[in-house]
């Protein structure tokens, strides 16, 4: 099943065209689906949701993050049609990013913990501003890298900070984290979509993330694909044609 590439896929393709090679992380030699990045035996493509949303997302990524098969920013760009992705550089800012942030039809929010900025910039809600469409800026990187991006990107200084108050611990099990309350990028995006009133997109992304995690870990642990899980059932209403479910 072939899908139109999202912004993260296009960014990966651009990096490869520039001669930049993927990182050789553990398991990198395993043959993976080009579209979903999961090992081919556990391909996720048939479970890609199709849902409408008013909000947009913009992923600010590090050079290596775009190649990681465990990256969940890719899932967000699969779900939210209005998706954008840029490689961060301290010295060379993409003019397209600046144009996006200055688009008069959008209301950008930089998603980041509120305790790191002055209180006057912080909000916990998404408030419509003259009919502008929300644009969530997500720093798709490790926590150390995200703090660096935040500190060294002056074009973010004027943006309101959307500080989330999650009521659940992270379900992300694909990489180790020192703090269980740290959400992965897909979980953060789902919370943002819910705040913006894009409830269907939030639900679809939540279910898609769980299905991705199950397929990814199943392949890693050499377990057969099980599409009869609650997460798969939750995702079914958001896909065009229901994949065959074993009896």
Automatic annotation (TrEMBL):
Its EC number is 2.5.1.25. Keywords: S-adenosyl-L-methionine, Transferase, tRNA processing. InterPro entries: DTW (IPR005636), DTWD2/TAPT (IPR039262). Residues 29-221 form the DTW domain. This is tRNA-uridine aminocarboxypropyltransferase.
